[in-house]
């Protein structure tokens, strides 16, 4: 029995972290937030094999497991790195492989880091007032809100029947416009479909669910990394900052805030590991665990984000320290692919406690 | 990541399950520490290696090598079968491990066998009115007079003092030494003249604890564990272990499942409580926390089994998070029941034999006992996060 990361997984984590330390510093993230792109970061991660993680070896990938993707997601969240990782390297490969169709060429391009796939799932999670996706024949009409990755080459779109379609970003019927959100470390777009060619990937709800589950776990792992980094920054700041002639880290009021963050966050790490493992190995537990992991990480991270900011005092509120980028990253992860209350309701339905 | 224990342990689990199937009817019901049924059951469990597993045979134990997984399997299967896992109490859980580590051969021979067989019941004399979180500030005095210690002072929270045969007790034997170096660990008979016990009724309405007073209690000099002034190390040899086991996650999971059943069966205006979306969301929130704690415990277990694996803070946070979680969980059950949640003692509308109300209060007790939540947070921030200690006040003189 060994509940933890293998040597290979620790190596993977260390390699990705080392690259991000050098190439996705806060200054680099600020460039992206001010309108720059993430191309060099993604190209560097591609050299490390990150987009190929979940692509099977036969299609030019590495063929690793969901837990490995979660490990990388945690690194990305810790560095609040702008990348198309969630859609391109996690959800799209899962959908394409699970669909059973022949997508060899596309998977090979994903693995090489030369094709980015965005995700437009909002419609299938909860339909919003201003949005609606309709597919008639092989043509798509309507609108998706908050699709992520603004620079994708194609998009994986789910309709309300939880059917999955692939559309090309350069389709003449597609209008893509930027939607500003609080989170400046990743960009979201509105997609308007006016007679867009829609290639059906799957009408099997299980494929949608498998794609959603792995996406939620990757988001939870990203949240884990971001929240852990906020806690680390808070502890470090408290040790340096002096008031009343002593480091504020020696005041119990401050120590207890940090201890509460650590106590709530530590089990989250085991939860993300288990959820990633369950997705591949424990099908009976996987779906409920994915829901709970997504929701629980969102709740703990909300507490950590607020508390870590408070530990920084007034500086935590400024742009100088930049802590707010992590704060907002946690906030965005909380809402993407289902906010906690919706996801917990799913957990209850999955256990048969209520019908819907 | 490998969550299986392997075929050897699967076979061991089958043995435990079979044993329970064939013998569960012999187990005592309830938590009687002194009854003959409980003692007979204890003897049977020791013979089969299902309790006191690693205590050497020469002292009456089963004499097996320590095996964390087997211990866990035993605990899981007894818990699943809702069968008594054998005698508990502070003698077995705290004194016996302490003696095995720090006791003399004579002490081991004299005390371990009768303790584990249930013939010798112990109470713990640690806390005092003036020494709670700051336990090392204890002031119960032991003065050597010839071949005897003469003890004067007061202990508090001495659960089972009223039925105990013996006490293991921390006393100040070296008043001039620094506070952690002036303590000794003594063992003595509760029938010794000069001991007075007053029951301490707590918020549950029961006297789960006592106050114990010592007036010129005379104890033979050799009834000391470790050396004079070494009592603090003797007591701390096993204190950390106590904290981790106060609120295990698999019990919390059993309680969540019981709460789900309650919410499925209980109705308000004819609607099942679980159909109320607010209650249901609170239930799911608790369930996700219990899940996180279960996985945290897997990490603790794994770090024990695989030296070199970094446990992070997973061990340090279990007492704080586990006890707070159980308190919240039991409190949710009371909330969802509305007025029925107030039922107590002999109320005919009691649900779950009143366990929700009892545990709601009991776990508030555990949030405080065994190192308060605030002390836990000091430990986590200082030892876990490397934050500095609060500067100490100079003693007013």
Over all CA atoms, what is the radius of gyration of chain A? 20 Å
CATH class of the largest domain in chain B: Mainly Alpha
| Count of discrete alpha- or pi-helical segments spanning 4 or more residues of chain A | 12
Largest interface: A-B, 48 and 55 residues
Written overview of the protein:
- In chain A, 54% of the residues lie in helices and 15% in strands.
- Chain A is an alpha+beta fold and 356 residues long.
- Chain A folds into 3 domains: 108 residues, Orthogonal Bundle (Butyryl-Coa Dehydrogenase, subunit A, domain 1), CATH 1.10.540.10; 86 residues, Butyryl-CoA Dehydrogenase, subunit A, domain 2 (Beta Barrel), CATH 2.40.110.10; 145 residues, Butyryl-CoA Dehydrogenase, subunit A, domain 3 (Up-down Bundle), CATH 1.20.140.10.
- A 4-stranded mixed beta sheet of chain A has the order 1-4-5-8. Chain A has a 4-stranded antiparallel beta sheet with strand order 2-3-7-6, with no helix packed on it. Chain A has a two-stranded antiparallel sheet with strand order 9-10.
- The radius of gyration of chain A is 20 Å and the shape is globular.
- By secondary structure, chain B is an alpha+beta fold.
- Chain B has 3 domains: 81 residues, no CATH class; 113 residues, Butyryl-CoA Dehydrogenase, subunit A, domain 2 (Beta Barrel), CATH 2.40.110.10; 139 residues, Butyryl-CoA Dehydrogenase, subunit A, domain 3.
- Chain B is built from 11 helices and 10 strands.
- Classes of the chains: A alpha+beta (356), B alpha+beta (397).
SSE topology sketch:
The complex is a heterodimer of chains A (356) and B (397).
Chain A: H1 7-23, H2 26-33, H3 39-47, H4 66-78, H5 85-98, H6 104-112, E1 117-120, H7 122-125, E2 132-136, E3 139-148, E4 154-158, E5 164-168, E6 174-179, E7 188-197, E8 199-202, H8 205-240, E9 242-243, E10 246-247, H9 252-281, H10 283-311, H11 323-335, H12 340-350
Parallel strand pairs in A: 1-4
Antiparallel strand pairs in A: 2-3, 3-7, 4-5, 5-8, 6-7, 9-10
Helix pairs in contact in A: 1-3, 1-4, 4-8, 4-9, 5-8, 8-9, 8-10, 8-11, 9-10, 10-11, 10-12
Chain B: H1 7-23, H2 36-48, H3 68-80, H4 90-102, H5 105-116, E1 122-125, E2 141-145, E3 148-156, E4 166-172, E5 183-189, E6 195-200, E7 209-220, E8 224-225, H6 231-244, H7 249-265, E9 267-268, E10 271-272, H8 277-305, H9 318-337, H10 355-368, H11 373-384
Parallel strand pairs in B: 1-4
Antiparallel strand pairs in B: 2-3, 3-7, 4-5, 5-8, 6-7, 9-10
């Amino acid at each position: 029995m060994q509940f933890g990361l293998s040597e290979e997984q620790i190596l993977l984590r260390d390699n990705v972290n080392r690259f991000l330390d050098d190439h996705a510093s806060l200054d680099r993230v600020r460039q992206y937030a001010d309108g720059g792109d993430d191309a060099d970061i993604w190209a560097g991660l591609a050299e490390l094999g990150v987009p190929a993680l979940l692509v099977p070896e036969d299609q030019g990938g590495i063929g690793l497991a969901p837990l490995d993707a979660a490990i990388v997601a945690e690194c990305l969240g810790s560095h609040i790195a702008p990348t198309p990782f969630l859609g391109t390297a996690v959800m799209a490969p899962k959908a394409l492989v699970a669909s059973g169709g022949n997508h060899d060429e596309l998977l090979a391009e994903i693995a090489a880091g030369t094709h980015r796939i965005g995700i437009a799932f909002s419609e299938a999670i909860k339909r919003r007032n201003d949005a609606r996706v309709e597919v008639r024949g092989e043509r798509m009409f309507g609108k998706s809100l908050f699709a992520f990755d603004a620079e994708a080459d194609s998009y994986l779109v789910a309709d309300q029947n939880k059917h999955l379609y692939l559309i090309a970003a350069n389709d003449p019927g597609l209008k893509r416009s930027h939607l500003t959100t609080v989170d400046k470390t990743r960009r979201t777009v509105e997609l308007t479909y006016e007679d867009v060619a829609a290639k059906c990937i799957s009408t099997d709800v299980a494929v949608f669910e498998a794609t959603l589950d792995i996406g939620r776990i990757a988001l939870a792992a990203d949240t884990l990394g971001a929240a852990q980094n906020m806690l680390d920054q808070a502890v470090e700041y408290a040790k340096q900052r002096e008031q009343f002639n002593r480091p504020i880290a020696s005041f119990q009021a401050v120590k207890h805030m940090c201890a509460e963050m650590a106590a709530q966050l530590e089990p989250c790490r085991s939860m993300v590991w288990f959820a990633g493992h369950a997705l591949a190995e424990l099908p009976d537990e996987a779906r409920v665990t994915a829901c709970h992991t997504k929701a629980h990480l969102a709740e703990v991270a909300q507490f950590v984000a607020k508390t870590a900011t408070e530990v920084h005092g007034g500086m935590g509120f400024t742009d100088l320290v930049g802590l707010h980028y992590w704060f907002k990253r946690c906030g965005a992860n909380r809402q993407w692919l289902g906010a906690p209350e919706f996801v917990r309701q799913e957990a209850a339905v999955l256990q048969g406690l209520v019908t819907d | 990541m490998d969550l299986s224990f392997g075929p050897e342990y699967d076979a061991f689990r089958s043995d435990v399950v079979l044993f329970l199937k064939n013998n569960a009817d012999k187990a005592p019901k309830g938590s009687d520490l002194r009854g003959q049924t409980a003692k007979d059951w204890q003897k049977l469990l020791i013979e089969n290696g299902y309790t006191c597993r690693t205590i050497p045979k020469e002292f009456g134990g089963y004499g097996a090598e320590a095996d964390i997984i087997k211990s866990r399997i035993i605990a899981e299967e007894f818990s699943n079968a809702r069968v008594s896992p054998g005698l508990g109490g502070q003698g077995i859980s705290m004194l016996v491990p302490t003696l095995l580590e720090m006791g003399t051969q004579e002490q081991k021979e004299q005390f371990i066998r009768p303790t584990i067989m249930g013939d010798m019941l112990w109470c713990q004399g640690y806390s005092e009115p003036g020494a709670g979180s700051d336990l090392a500030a204890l002031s119960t005095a032991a003065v050597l007079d010839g071949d005897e210690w003469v003890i004067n002072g007061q202990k508090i929270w001495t659960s089972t003092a009223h039925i105990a045969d013996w006490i293991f007790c921390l006393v100040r034997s070296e008043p001039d030494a620094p506070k952690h170096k002036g303590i000794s660990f003594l063992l003595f008979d509760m029938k010794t003249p000069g001991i007075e016990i007053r029951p301490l009724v707590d918020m549950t309405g029961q006297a789960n604890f006592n106050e114990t007073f010592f007036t010129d209690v005379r104890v033979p000099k050799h009834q000391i564990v470790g050396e004079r002034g070494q009592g603090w190390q003797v007591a701390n040899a096993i204190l950390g272990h106590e904290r981790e086991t106060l609120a295990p996650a698999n019990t919390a999971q059993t309680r969540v499942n019981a709460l789900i059943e309650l919410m499925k069966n209980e109705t308000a205006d004819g609607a099942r409580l679980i159909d109320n979306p607010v209650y249901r969301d609170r239930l799911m929130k608790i369930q996700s926390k219990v899940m996180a704690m279960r996985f945290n415990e897997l990490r603790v277990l794994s770090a024990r089994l695989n030296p070199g694996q970094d446990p992070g803070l997973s061990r340090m946070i279990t007492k704080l998070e586990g006890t707070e979680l159980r308190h919240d969980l039991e409190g949710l059950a009371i909330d969802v029941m509305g007025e029925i949640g107030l039922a107590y003692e002999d109320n005919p509308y009691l649900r779950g034999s009143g366990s929700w109300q009892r545990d709601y209060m009991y776990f508030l007790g555990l949030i405080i006992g065994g190192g308060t939540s605030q002390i836990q947070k000091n430990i986590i921030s200082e030892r876990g996060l490397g934050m500095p200690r609060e500067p100490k006040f100079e003693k007013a003189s």
